[in-house]
Automatic annotation (TrEMBL):
The keyword rRNA-binding does not apply. Residues 43-182, 214-354 form the SIS domain. It comes from the Bacteria. It comes from Promicromonospora umidemergens. The keyword Repeat applies. It is an enzyme of class 2 (transferase). Its EC number is 2.6.1.16. It catalyses: D-fructose 6-phosphate + L-glutamine = D-glucosamine 6-phosphate + L-glutamate. Keywords: Aminotransferase, Glutamine amidotransferase, Repeat, Transferase. Coiled coil: none annotated. This is Glutamine--fructose-6-phosphate aminotransferase [isomerizing]. The chain holds residues 244 to 607 of 607 of the full protein.
Length: 364
């Protein structure tokens, strides 16, 4: 319930600079420009033998898993993907001995994720856990893992656990990368980027007032899109998830690249779009898509970096601090938490106890 009259979700969002700091503590090695995750129980030879990474989680954990897959592919150049654990366990997945399976869960008790872990291990696969709750069922079922150190998360909508999951993946990608082909210079760049995150999250949180204004306008729409491309797409998925969970508005995530293959038909002055437009190699393409939306009268909220030129587009702009490109998704995610939170407040909902949802789903 509320602390000091503030919803729990709010206090948990505000704790993120501290929880990210905790997740990093003692795990960065400046000298060798790498990360040390002792709990993996894997030496350099075993890490080098990994040919593929498969990430499994549910809900927000699955979306962060997609961000994690990008981090691993970009930094370690190991093919990686994420799948909903709830789907994985119902198909007949091929379990490969040189694939590293990663289960990601705040509670460590989500039944779909737990049963996926048990199935993989039964078939001889190696699973590591990215888990917040120490000693939880998933943590015990895995071969090794990374504790997130986010502290207790009570609100149903995951915020501080989610950002520490991202950090966990970044550390894993860094360690995996540095036993393979990631250079010392890139390792240093990432170590410094990670160290800067707590202060940068604080900066995003300081922009709350502006985000709250944008949220009030969005709360009036019955239906909205969240769009992003490549690194930005899982961010859009997580943003839409949060928005629907607590505001009960229809929020649909789409790849910005696929807009013209379908959803543009729905764009109108009644259907706003929240667009994730980092300053990266795809900015121009993303800005071109914004023009397509604008030309159809679709209201736009753009989460971006200072310096991205949006020309004469009529948008509500939310700038986040620039990180290293691979780490951008974390800072782009934080304003979407505030956006969902303030939309839900404006609509008078109990953000800590969204209807029909449980904090963790532990029974089938
Ligand atoms: C869902 C919650 O049912 O479980 C989501 O409503 C959460 O918010 C998901 O992301 C996974 O939970 P966990 O504990 O495995 O991370």
């Amino acid at each position: 319930g509320p602390i000091d009259g503030r919803p729990r979700m709010y206090t948990e969002m505000l704790e993120q600079p501290a929880s990210v700091e905790r997740a990093l503590r003692g795990r960065l090695d400046e000298r060798f420009a790498t990360a040390h995750l002792g709990g993996l129980e894997m030496d350099a030879r075993e890490l080098r033998a990994v040919r593929r990474v498969k990430i499994l989680g549910c809900g927000s954990a699955y979306y962060v898993g997609q961000m994690g897959a990008s981090l691993i592919e970009e930094l370690a150049r190991v093919p990686a993907d994420a799948e909903a654990a709830s789907e994985f366990r119902y198909r007949s997945p091929v379990i490969e001995p040189d694939t590293l399976y990663v289960a990601v869960s705040q509670s460590g008790e989500t039944i779909d994720t737990l049963l996926a872990v048990e199935e993989i291990r039964r078939k001889g696969g190696r699973v590591i856990g990215l888990v917040n709750v120490v000693g939880s069922a998933i943590a015990r079922a895995c071969d090794g893992g990374i504790y997130l150190h986010a502290g207790p998360e009570i609100a149903v909508a995951s915020t501080k656990a989610l950002t520490t999951m991202f950090v966990g993946f970044a550390l894993l990608a860094l360690q995996l990368g540095r036993v393979r082909d990631l250079s010392v210079a890139d390792g240093r760049r990432l170590v410094a980027g990670l160290q800067n995150l707590p202060a940068q999250i604080e900066q995003v949180l300081d922009g709350e007032e502006r985000i709250a204004q944008a949220a009030k306008a969005l709360a009036e729409a019955e239906s909205l899109f969240f769009v992003g491309r490549v690194r930005g797409f899982p961010v859009a998925r997580e943003g839409a998830q949060k928005f629907k969970e607590i505001s009960y508005r229809h929020a649909e995530a789409y790849q910005m690249s696929e807009l013209k293959h379908g959803p543009l038909a729905l764009i109108s002055p009644e259907v706003p779009t929240v667009a994730i437009v980092p300053d990266d190699e795809l900015t121009d393409r993303n800005v071109a898509a914004l023009h397509e939306i604008d030309a159809r009268g679709g209201p736009l909220v753009v989460v971006t970096h200072a310096g991205v030129d949006l020309g004469d587009l009529r948008v509500e702009r939310i700038d986040v601090p620039r990180s290293e490109r691979e780490l951008d998704p974390l800072l782009l995610t934080v304003p979407l938490q505030l956006l969902a939170y303030h939309a839900a407040l404006a609509l008078g909902h109990d953000v800590d106890k969204p209807r029909n949802l449980a904090k963790s789903v532990t029974v089938e």
